[in-house]
Amino acid sequence: MPIKQSYTDVLIIGAGPSGFMAATWLARCGIPFRIIDKRSNEIFAGQADGLQSRTLEIFKSFSEASFDFATLDQGWKVANHITEMCFWSPDANGKLVRNSRVPDSAPGISRFTECVIHQGNVEKWFEESIDNFSSGTVKVERPILPISIKVNENEADPQGYAVDVLVTKLDSESAKPEQVGKVANGLFRAFDGDQEKFYHDLESGKNEDDFEMIHAKYVIGSDGAHSWVRRQLGIDMEGEHTDYVWGVLDMTPITNFPDIRSRCAIHSKDSGSVMVIPRENDLVRFYIQLKEVERDPETKNDKSQFNGNVEDKAAKSKGRVDRSKITPESILKQAQEIFKPYTMEMTDLRWYTGYQIGQRVSPSFSAHNRVFISGDACHTHSPKAGQGMNVSMQDTYNLGFKLALVCKGLAKQDILSTYESERLKVARDLIAYDHKLSRLFSGKPMIPNSDVMDGVDLDEFHRTYREGSHFASGTISDYENSILVSKDNGLPVDADGRTMSKIATNIPIGRRLYSDPIIAQADGKPIHLGDRLASDGRFRVLLFAGDVKNNHQNMELLHKFQDSLDSQKNFLKKYTPVNAFADSVIEVLTIHACDRHDVELYDFPDFTHPLDFKRRCDYWKLYTGVGSTYHEGDIDIYETYGIDKQKGAILVIRPDSHVAQVNEFSVDGLNKVNAYFDQFMIPQLDNVLPKKEADVNDIDRFVKPRLAI
Amino acid sequence: MPIKQSYTDVLIIGAGPSGFMAATWLARCGIPFRIIDKRSNEIFAGQADGLQSRTLEIFKSFSEASFDFATLDQGWKVANHITEMCFWSPDANGKLVRNSRVPDSAPGISRFTECVIHQGNVEKWFEESIDNFSSGTVKVERPILPISIKVNENEADPQGYAVDVLVTKLDSESAKPEQVGKVANGLFRAFDGDQEKFYHDLESGKNEDDFEMIHAKYVIGSDGAHSWVRRQLGIDMEGEHTDYVWGVLDMTPITNFPDIRSRCAIHSKDSGSVMVIPRENDLVRFYIQLKEVERDPETKNDKSQFNGNVEDKAAKSKGRVDRSKITPESILKQAQEIFKPYTMEMTDLRWYTGYQIGQRVSPSFSAHNRVFISGDACHTHSPKAGQGMNVSMQDTYNLGFKLALVCKGLAKQDILSTYESERLKVARDLIAYDHKLSRLFSGKPMIPNSDVMDGVDLDEFHRTYREGSHFASGTISDYENSILVSKDNGLPVDADGRTMSKIATNIPIGRRLYSDPIIAQADGKPIHLGDRLASDGRFRVLLFAGDVKNNHQNMELLHKFQDSLDSQKNFLKKYTPVNAFADSVIEVLTIHACDRHDVELYDFPDFTHPLDFKRRCDYWKLYTGVGSTYHEGDIDIYETYGIDKQKGAILVIRPDSHVAQVNEFSVDGLNKVNAYFDQFMIPQLDNVLPKKEADVNDIDRFVKPRLAI
Fold this sequence. Notes:
By secondary structure, chain A is of the alpha+beta class. Chain A is globular, with a radius of gyration of 27 Å.
């Protein structure tokens, strides 16, 4: 009997946060895809827990568009919001004292601040989101192991099924992580799969029914630090391991330490360091430095699957770290030393682990613009800056909409190469930051005015931490000039690395657009602009029309734009399938700068209050960026963005909310928008969608608009 | 075969919003109860849609305590927030013009503003909440019809099963509302049940298995305007019908009327009035005046089940209103006349109905402190002020915690009589407001500077509407002096009807406590005080300790309070079962007035950071009410409440967030708290809870604290 053959647009290998984020994008945009995982069960304890500002913005962007509530922005409600970061270190007498306190998230960078919650919750919300967006058609398939992958490099058609992945269904037992004792712990060796054995089975005709050949247009390997996909692509990680061994405890502490509900970085005089992360449900996570371990030369250039936990290290470094000594009690004992003179006891232990990870990054994130790797498969580093889960999700948040655009036939395959160019830089910055921070955190402190004058300069540590908090928030990821980002007009770069135009002196091009409230013309309701930039796969063109009441040219220009937008020569008609909703690929929003009561909805051209095929009006295209609200104070998004209220501006925003282009508010500015899309979009003037698709979501038009429906 | 006999603490008859709110309370507090409904299905369209500020506060109060997200505060996310109210009326030439615009919800009265969503959603959230709080043990039982009810007035034990209710299971067909055509409509006659027939069946031994005798301690009749329970108690509604007939449409309008996404009250010159309610999902509800109908003398004193819809009226008033003419098209036709010169067409019709309801109120809400009626069973009125669903839920929000306290044996049965005294006043105020508003809205307008000088004075209408918006918000419901509210110390009543002490010059006693942010001492996180007053059945004593840093007496006093709270003579120990969590009946929170960085957690006495039986600390008892936050600006709840920062105050807050008592911050003030609880609480010094209960929620202690666990 021949093996089962099947076809899908995208195959995602690995159902962790990174794979899930890709799946959420694809489900949201209506792309056929599958997601497989070799483990038989989800995560119930431990693992990553930090949700940074940018991640929460992304979660919100998937939630706002959906009427269904079972979605990602639950994170912001149930996770523990961390408010303050406290630094503790020895005073001149060696006594542990609070050195300083700073806001945990830098004020003013986002409407969300860092919060923490167990990774299992995040994965549950993702599963619900995917279920919701795919109308129940896509579930994680597990336990499924990939056996082989083959890329047909000669397949020129972006819609061709160029990647063949052979997979097999595992029995549940071999896919379960091994647990030691009753308390969940992270000291298990992840099941790597024995592809050889399964391949041999297949050759010999054994268990044929368990195998399936999946033909995919594109494949994403989100399969963790050991990434099978990465190894198949022949990509090695670059970087180094560390000397430091850390223990992790998730438990409820019994202590008289006063800052146990704040995030704390504690350097003790002689006993090592502790990071305190107060969690949901009065749980606390502790990262506790265990002891120094000499580097084992044999492991330094180890190309095998170093998974970063103590067991592996121990196995390979001649038993220097004795795994049997890594117990919750041994970790706690070290914590007690560090916390002295404060007491520290433990109850309700939920999870523990030990790790000894370095900073490593993959030099390449993709092959042939067909196979991509993301998350831990591309970068591994210490968990203490709360970055892992976040950067991993942000990788695929970058990749997902691009794959959706390509799979829908709306954009050229070329755009996929921006995934690596955009995310590799972020990964390298992350590795550099983590390298610096973790060494400053692991080192013995210098104590001013004492005899301990060598060691880590704690002022430098605090400064590094504070300066890094912008980076760590994920809000300043900056994408370089490319076909998707227009920085190529000789714009200056400021001291903070931002590329900004004089047209909008506070909007860094290439970074995500900061969100501020605007007011809907139709009903006076304040809404965050970010919530109008929902993650549904669409580009947005924002027309900042300025003060159209006092500046008549601006209103005239707006009316003139109506003709441009109606023309098949221009971006809006040209790149939208002929029978799709007019705003289903690119949405045009207008934000003026008048008091809402001084102008009327019907003063503005039709594209600001367009009618659909049933002549139902879309009232949510026209806003004011300036004025008073009844309940939420005054707003001025022109001020926030540095846009002149007389001159205005035109912005192009990518589906991931990154600023693609900043133009002047003029006919020329609108033409530049054409030029932007002409680089990579595929004309749709002959594309008539199958009737079914065009009719979809009739009555629920305003509930779930999405790419090209 | 004898009929099945069963026992429950509370039987709720009727699963509409009012019954559901009672059920939510009881589930939240862990009371055994059942909820039955004679209809076989839920509501899918139409009915009530307004959620007022106070209702949203209540929803939030049930949600905050729960870690599970499938709860009531979804309303605030998915409902349509109405921002502005626009008044339209004829100008001097008779042309329809916008007369004025005001905020739909008065600024400053609540952190929530009015929003609207279809009643079916609200009921779905209630079902999820009940499922969540009862751990899946309680579901609405339907279709179940009550046949007879008997109260044993001689049962002196509050825990005795004094009410016998005979019920029968209906077949689904007889319990379904009749629908006309494809579009859901409200023109059906609700199934009233034929108790006689079923009783006869039982007598003759037919279908014996379908019957059940439920023995309940207490019964709530939340069974609508026709209330079977009310009729069994022999209570007649008082009040009158109206002359005006209104049509209702839920549809997507196609119109050039500019304010269609605002709430509008439109008086036309000659064609009647329209109320516009913009809904979720771009739906709009229209209340459209159809025509005037003369009062039929025969129906005026009609004691039968007048259900307020046109069909009933038509059936009884000699065909004056021809039901067959009440079609969506006929309603729309009238709307088109009123909206002229603006166009008005219709698409996506979801629901329609006609009604002709007056203002009626039940003179009594309970019998023998055993059977209670609530919601439409007690008061019927026009829907245009968006009150029905809200006041109905607020009725049982008042009743539910009292029943929980009595059923747990914590409070005396006497407190139940405050249900009627507190809610009957609200119902009468509502009826008076609705009577005035609906007549002003239904009348032909007077047009200033024209020849139409008789009719409704629109200025009076606008004034009535605006002044009524505080009442309509539900936030100023004011409960009189009773064993549950201490107003009896000769306090003055101000021009707005508020009773306030000099100790807290902006806290009206008897009203719900307005919520403002405070900052947790332990982690610096700002949190709304309202979110610390979760609806879990507990009373709170709030110690406003003032500036304890500069005012040492206040800190000394706080430390002195430790002894009082430890004494079995005082409220905290005296009224809490001996092995229950110390805060499971009355929770003491301390809110000081110092900068959080100027004091330390462990400067304060133990009761501000108490340990539980595992010595886990509860960090969430101590706050500052004054200071700066990193992300949310400055706060000062002392200023908000009019509490002197040197003198402080002690508040007692009921489980429904109403202010029970305002005392000075002193030993004497704390003694008054004793006196308050001594009036109605039952000492628990001999009450040892069954071990199971005391051990419940061990690890999840901080997730779902609730009454006496």
